[in-house]
Write a structure and sequence with these properties.
The structure is a single chain. By secondary structure, the chain is α+β, with helices and mostly antiparallel strands. It is built from eleven helices and 14 strands. A five-stranded mixed sheet has the order 4-3-2-1-5. The chain has a five-stranded antiparallel sheet with strand order 12-11-10-13-14. The protein binds adenosine-5'-diphosphate and magnesium ion. Adenosine-5'-diphosphate (ADP) is lined by residues 145, 175, 177, 182-184, 187, 213-216, 220, 241, 245-246, 293, 305-306.
Length: 355
C-alpha cells in the first residue's frame, strides 16, 4: 500500500519562496513506488489550493502554484480510509514561521485527526515564542545568556526607565528581538543607547512582545535531533557568518556564510552538546525533528540559543546536511519523518477519551 502524502507549502509568510524550493526538493526525493504525492499550495494571501496528484518531479517552482487548481477549505481535509478516495495518510507541512511552524496549522490537523510530520501544537507554539522557550529551557537547567523581555505597552508607558533597566541588567552589546519571529527579521545588535532606542522601535513593528539578550562573542554550533520518544542526534555543524551576526541577508542573500560539517568540536564537547539538545527536545515535548542552535564561547562554555521546530529543509540546509553527514540521506530522512508522524499518531490513538 502506498502512502498518500499531502505536501503543504508556500504560505502567508516571509519564507514563502524558501518553502517552494523545499517542496520541489522533497517531491524529487520521494520514491513514487512508496508515495502518492498530493500538493497543497498555500498562496501568499493564505488561500489553500489543491493541485493534481504529482506523478513526476517538478522542474520549476511555477508548476507548484496551481492557478487553475481548486481552492479548498482547510477544514475539509480528511484522513484516508477504505471509503475515502480523497483522503491523506500523512500531511507534511513544509512551512516556516507564523502560521506554519507556530502550532496553528498543527492545531487544525489535530482537530481533523490527521497524522502530520513534525512537532505538535505545544512544541511548535512554545518554540516560536523566544521568551516562553527560554523560560522552559531555564526551568530544564539549560545554560543561556541573560535575557529580559517586555510588551509594547510597558515600553510606551516609560521608555527611559525601560532603557535604564536593560542597560543595568544586560549592558552592551545586547540583542533586541521580536519574540515571535525567525530568519533574524527585526533583530538588532546594539552597542549604545541610541542603537537600543532604534532597535526597540524596529522590533516592536513585528511583535507586541520583545526579548533583549546579553550579547556574547561566540561560535555558532548547531545539531539536528530526530525522533519521538527516543530522539537521536546528528553530528554537530558550525555556521560561520560572513557578517557581524547571522542576520537576514547573511542567511538568505549574500552567500557569505558557510556551514562546516562536521563542526570542529571535541568528543567531550559533542557529548555535552547532544545531551543539551536532547534535554531541550524533551523539555518542549518535541516530536519528529528540531534543530538546536548553540553558542560556544572562547572559554568553552555552551549556551543554548534556540530550537527551530521546522528548520530549513532544502537539501542544502543545515538540518538535512547534518543528517547526511550522520549517514541519513535526504530521501531516507523524509521517509523517517513520515514514519515518525505515523508512529506518533498511532501512539495517540491509545488515549482514552471517556472515563
Ligand atoms: N545573545 C546573542 N549574542 C550574540 N549573538 C546573537 C545573540 N542572539 C542572536 N545572535 C545572532 O543573531 C542571529 C539570529 O538570532 P536568533 O535568536 O537565532 O534569531 P532567529 O530565530 O531569527 O534565527 C544568531 O544566529 C546570532 O548570529
Ligand atoms: Mg536562529
Amino acid at each position: 500500500m502506498k502512502t498518500k502524502l499531502g505536501l503543504l507549502y508556500g504560505g502567508k509568510s516571509a519564507e514563502h519562496e524558501v518553502s517552494l524550493q523545499t517542496a520541489m526538493a522533497v517531491i524529487k526525493a520521494l520514491d513514487l513506488e512508496k508515495f502518492d504525492i498530493y500538493p497543497i499550495y498555500i498562496t501568499k494571501e493564505g488561500a489553500w489550493v489543491k493541485g493534481p496528484q504529482l506523478t513526476a518531479p517538478v522542474e520549476n517552482v511555477e508548476e507548484l502554484a496551481f492557478p487553475n487548481g481548486s481552492q479548498v477549505a482547510p477544514l475539509s481535509l480528511q484522513k484516508a480510509n477504505e471509503t475515502n478516495e480523497d483522503g491523506y495518510d500523512v500531511l507534511f507541512p513544509l512551512l516556516h514561521g507564523p502560521n506554519g511552524e507556530d502550532g496553528t496549522v498543527q492545531g487544525m490537523f489535530e482537530l481533523l485527526n490527521l497524522p502530520y510530520v513534525g512537532n505538535g501544537v505545544l512544541a511548535s507554539s512554545a518554540g516560536m515564542d523566544k521568551v516562553i522557550m527560554k523560560n522552559i529551557f531555564a526551568q530544564a537547567g539549560l545554560p543561556q545568556v541573560k535575557y529580559t523581555w517586555l510588551i509594547r505597552s510597558e515600553w510606551e508607558a516609560n521608555r527611559e526607565e525601560v532603557y535604564n533597566q536593560v542597560e543595568a541588567e544586560l549592558g552592551y552589546p545586547n540583542f533586541v528581538k521580536p519574540a515571535n519571529l525567525g530568519s533574524s527579521v527585526g533583530i538588532s545588535k546594539c552597542s549604545n543607547r541610541e542603537e537600543l532606542e532604534k532597535a526597540f522601535v524596529e522590533a516592536f513593528q513585528f511583535d507586541r512582545k520583545i526579548i533583549i539578550e546579553e550579547g556574547v562573542t561566540a561560535r555558532e554550533i548547531e545539531i539536528g535531533v530526530l525522533g519521538n520518544d527516543h530522539p537521536a542526534c546528528s553530528v554537530a555543524g558550525e555556521i560561520i557568518s560572513g557578517k557581524d551576526f547571522y542576520d537576514y541577508t547573511a542567511k538568505y542573500t549574500d552567500g557569505k556564510s558557510t556551514m562546516v560539517i562536521p563542526g570542529d568540536v571535541t568528543e567531550e564537547q559533542y557529548a555535552e552538546l547532544s545531551k543539551m539538545a536532547i534535554t531541550a527536545f524533551k523539555s518542549l515535548d518535541c516530536s519528529g525533528l528540531v534543530r538546536a542552535d548553540f553558542f560556544l564561547t572562547k572559554e568553552g562554555d555552551f549556551y543554548i540559543n534556540e530550537v527551530n521546530t521546522m528548520p530549513g529543509f532544502t537539501p542544502f540546509s543545515m538540518f538535512p546536511l547534518l543528517w547526511k553527514h550522520t549517514g541519513v540521506e535526504y530521501p531516507v530522512l523524509i521517509e523517517k519523518l513520515v514514519q515518525l508522524a505515523q508512529e506518533r499518531y498511532e501512539e495517540k490513538q491509545k488515549i482514552k477519551y471517556t472515563v
